[in-house]
Backbone:
């Protein structure tokens, strides 16, 4: 099992401060044949570049582009799931993939673009037969934060 | 902004840098890139923008001008192999 990030602290009666982003985390669990991967609360920076849009993960160094915000978000989500699937097929784990974006990308967070937070849980099963995304159970979609 | 750089050009550059690539889906422009411990599925739109190339440059250490001059990339990489 691979776990990255801290467990969210259980608050007793204390409400979380409004708007404070949750800790990013990644969890990988397997029984040898079935892999469950959870990616939680990763921050994604979205910028416009000419006619195109660019989405760059901050907690995980992964990016995608598209013609609109909607498309770039979808491309990011689909590509991220596909990359996790490929890493599990090739290496049996996702550790190579769990790299934080470099400082220059983080520096852009407060200067340009919009950001949103993204979480997913995916099920990777019967990997030798699957080239597509069968078996992935998308549970939670992106939620918009204030730019 | 990336005019003149086609997905085919990008693949040529990747191949020159020993990044194995294949097109998974022509409709969605989904590519898989693999080199040593790097494996990633990326979705490129028709117009491969400069920012996306910078991403590859940073991650794969590919000189960005190679994307604009794929022939040069092939030549440079041949020279590196010869050495």
Residues:
């Amino acid at each position: 099992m691979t776990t990255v990030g801290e467990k969210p602290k259980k608050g007793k009666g204390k409400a979380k401060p409004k708007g404070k982003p949750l800790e990013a985390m990644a969890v990988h669990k397997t029984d040898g044949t079935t892999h469950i991967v959870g990616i939680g609360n990763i921050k994604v920076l979205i910028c416009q570049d000419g006619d195109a849009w660019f989405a760059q993960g901050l907690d995980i160094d992964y990016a995608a582009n598209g013609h609109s915000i909607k498309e770039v978000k979808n491309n990011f989500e689909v590509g991220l799931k596909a990359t996790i699937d490929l890493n599990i097929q090739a290496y049996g784990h996702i550790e190579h993939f769990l790299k934080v974006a470099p400082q220059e990308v983080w520096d852009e967070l407060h200067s340009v673009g919009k950001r949103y937070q993204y979480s997913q849980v995916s099920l990777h099963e019967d990997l030798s037969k699957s080239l597509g995304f069968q078996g992935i159970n998308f549970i939670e979609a992106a939620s918009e934060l204030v730019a | 902004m990336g005019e003149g750089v086609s997905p085919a050009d990008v693949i040529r550059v990747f191949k020159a840098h020993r990044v194995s690539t294949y097109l998974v889906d022509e409709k969605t422009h989904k590519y898989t890139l693999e080199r040593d411990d790097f494996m990633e599925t990326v979705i490129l739109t028709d117009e491969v923008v400069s920012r996306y190339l910078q991403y590859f440059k940073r991650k794969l250490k590919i000189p960005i001008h190679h994307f604009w001059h794929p022939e040069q990339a092939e030549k440079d990489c041949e020279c590196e192999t010869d050495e």
Q: What stands out?
A: The interface with chain B takes residues 47, 49-52, 54, 56, 61-67, 75, 78-79, 82-83, 85-87, 90-91, 96-97, 102, 131 of chain A (CB under 8 Å). Helices of chain A lie at 69-91, 103-107. DSSP finds two helices and seven strands in chain A. Residues 4-17, 126-147 of chain A have pLDDT under 50 and may be disordered.
